[in-house]
Design goal:
Layout (H helix, E strand, L loop, with lengths): L3 E6 L4 E8 L2 E4 L9 E2 L1 E5 L5 E3 H9 L4 E5 L13 E4 L2 E4 H20 L5 E6 L8 H17 L4 E6 H10 L6 E8 L4 E9 L2 E10 L3 H11 L20 H6 L11 H13 L3 H12 L3 H14 L5 E5 L8 E5 H26 L9 E5 L8 H8 L4 E4 L5 H14 L2
Length: about 400
């Protein structure tokens, strides 16, 4: 009798699991009817429980006393992975926190199948860390160790764009030269392949550590952070230091601002500010630990601007009377440089790594939530003028492909 296996797409913003037994694979409805689970944990200090996904974000936004953590995948390739962080009256190891989330994915998959699962293909970006092979390998080793600690015994890895290519290959009727583009929450990854039904030839892989959370940061700095004093003037003629605002705009760094040292520094700057109304609001945000609420509003605004020319961000719950209207032009301007870097990385994968011209790409297969960013598709079409554009499911193509990879490896 065959054993069940799974593919796990542990994402910066969202995660998904595909399970299989024998020849059959399927996505797990991992939170209600949804096949995605936001990569979020909330340690609820009032109930003593740990929540995951949408429920985690909901309890945080309902102002339960607790600690919200998001974008945990970003920690894998950073020095933070070996550190601890304060959660209530205890300090927790970041490896253990990521492990709690991986364990929850495993548990939900096992409840769905009714069997224990210890065989997994884990997705990974082409680059956890840019331009540092040692740090990149260390990040994969960290993820392997975390998965082993949660009970996985047979562990394999596959580049996320290659997994997405497996999903796309199921639709093919003929041979194509394909550039798979996976723009996730933390990274942008590319694979160049010659695909045909039943066969694939990998020509090159590439990636860059830019993704949806970076787009959130850029939009936040260009808009809401200005209402908190970013780029405002101090009496001596200098600008407010930008570090606080960059941390407040970056999901996995927000909690590091909630210290007495930070509050002391901001209060000192408040007395030097030309416009104290903005720094007063900044102090209120930090005192009330409202950073994740602002980040969530920025992310929702980014998503809304995929369909609308304008959106209003209502932050009355953070500070009475605080609203901010954001236009699509502001989003395009804020993310222009990052989009250009992503497109350049895609072009480099095709030309320098695969040895092809941009005109040789026949199909752009796009997946990942951040491919919906306004202006991104147009920039990719301009870079690869002969390519047809096809979209996979933005949030589950990679997980589906990882399930197929697990089937190939374990489904015997």
């Amino acid at each position: 009798m065959s054993r069940p296996y799974c593919g796990i797409d542990f994402g910066t913003s969202n995660s998904a699991v595909c399970v299989g037994e024998g020849e059959n694979v399927q996505l797990v409805p991992i939170e209600g009817d949804s096949v995605t689970l936001p990569s979020a944990l909330f340690f609820n200090f009032e109930t003593g429980e740990t929540r995951f996904g949408r429920q985690a974000v909901a309890e945080y936004l309902d102002h339960y006393d607790g600690r919200l953590m998001r974008a945990l995948k970003s920690i894998l390739g950073s020095s933070l992975i070996g550190e601890t962080t304060q959660v209530g009256n205890r300090r927790k190891d970041f490896r253990a926190i990521i492990g709690m989330y991986i364990a929850e994915l495993k548990d939900r998959a096992e409840r769905f199948t009714g069997h224990s699962i210890d065989q997994v293909v884990l997705g990974r970006p082409v680059r956890f860390v840019d331009n540092d092979d040692v740090a990149d390998a260390r990040a994969e080793a960290e993820l392997r160790g975390i998965a082993e600690a949660q009970g996985f015994r047979d562990i394999a890895f596959e580049y996320e764009p290659l997994a997405a290519a497996r999903d796309y290959q199921l639709r093919l009727t003929g041979a194509e030269t394909v550039l798979v583009t996976d723009i996730g929450g933390g990274t942008s990854d590319f694979s160049v392949l010659r695909l045909a039904p039943g066969s694939s030839d990998i020509l090159a892989n590439g990636g860059v550590h830019i993704g949806g959370t970076d787009f959130d940061t850029r939009l936040s700095l260009a808009t809401l952070m200005r209402d908190l004093g970013y780029r405002s003037q101090l009496k001596g003629g200098l600008e407010m230091p930008g570090l606080y605002y960059h941390q407040l705009s970056t999901w996995h760094l927000i909690n590091f601002l909630y210290t007495q040292k930070t509050m002391l520094g901001v209060r000192q700057l408040h007395h030097q500010a030309v416009d104290r109304s903005m720094t007063e609001r900044l102090m209120k945000v930090l005192e009330n630990h409202s950073g994740h609420e602002i980040a969530n509003k920025v992310e929702l605004a980014k998503i809304a601007l995929s369909d609308a020319e304008m959106t209003t961000v209502d932050l009355n719950a953070v500070d009475k009377g605080w609203t901010h209207i954001i236009g699509r032009a502001a989003l395009l301007g804020a993310t222009y440089n990052d989009v250009e870097k992503v497109v350049n990385a895609a072009t480099d994968t095709v030309t320098a790594r695969a040895g092809l011209t941009p005109e040789a790409i026949e199909t752009l297969f796009m997946t990942g939530g951040s491919t919906a960013l306004p202006g991104f598709e147009a920039a990719m079409r301009a870079a690869f003028p002969n390519a047809r554009v096809h979209y996979g499911d933005r949030f589950s193509s990679v997980a589906s492909g990882l399930g197929l990879a697990a089937k190939q490896r374990f489904g015997k």
